């Protein structure tokens, strides 16, 4: 009971699947850092990655902002596990709403990174 | 000569295909009005539509701003024809750079519009 209540108190707000909007998803992915986070999450399939896993060339508060934009748009799910905030891609929700979009976005991002020599 | 020079003087700046960036395209499409413009242009295939064709519930200056964002991101091409500014989707450029993305975006936008009863 206590641990459930504590977990609930720390639960972060997420849009339900039917609340996710295409425009918000596209806005979330229109930033290079957020696109990079999504590519890394996609690379581990359904696995979770902690925020500290990401080695981004930006401040901690900017990183937190980017994760919040991704969560509030419905692109990622964030869950506390102990002291770590874990992140996973909402691939099932996105694929259900927007068939083929996430795949096309990831392929496009990969191709652009290769083209620009960013690996 | 004279008419060519006049046309050049009025030519609007566009990114070359290789200058188009995925993040800028996604940002351009992250606005409901701009997404609507792109859907209308896609519906007429490669045809051009004048700015005045679009009956958007926004001011003329905001409309001009949206078309400029679409042009500068590489999503549309804008050309003067007499006094009209004509717009067309840069589908070939986008499909060459980002295979499958434009199609998936349009399908997603259609599905969302149907789901939200926006036709």
Question: Would you give an account of this structure?
Answer:
The structure is a homodimer of 119-residue chains. The first copy, chain A, has six helices and three strands. With 119 residues, chain A is mainly alpha-helical. In chain A, a hairpin with a 2-residue loop joins β2 and β3. The relative contact order of chain A is 0.18. The model of chain A has no long low-confidence stretch (mean pLDDT 90). At the A-B interface, α2 and α6 of A face α2 and α6 of B.
Task: Write out key terms for the chains shown.
homodimer; 119 residues; mainly alpha; Arc Repressor Mutant, subunit A; 6 helices
Would you kindly provide a brief summary of this structure?
With 119 residues, chain A is mainly alpha-helical. The first copy, chain A, has helices spanning 2-9, 22-28, 32-43, 60-72, 91-97, 101-115; strands at 49-50, 76-81, 84-89.
């Amino acid at each position: 009971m206590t641990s459930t209540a504590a977990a609930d108190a720390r639960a972060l707000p997420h849009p339900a699947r039917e609340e996710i909007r295409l425009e918000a998803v596209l806005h979330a992915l229109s930033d290079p850092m957020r696109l990079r986070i999504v590519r890394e999450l996609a690379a581990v399939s359904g696995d979770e990655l902690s925020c500290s896993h990401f080695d981004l060339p930006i401040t901690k508060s900017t990183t937190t902002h980017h994760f919040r934009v991704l969560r509030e748009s419905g692109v990622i799910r964030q869950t506390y596990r102990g002291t770590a905030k874990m992140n996973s891609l909402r691939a099932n929700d996105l694929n259900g709403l927007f068939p083929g979009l996430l795949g096309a976005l990831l392929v496009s991002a990969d191709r652009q990174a290769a083209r620009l020599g960013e690996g």
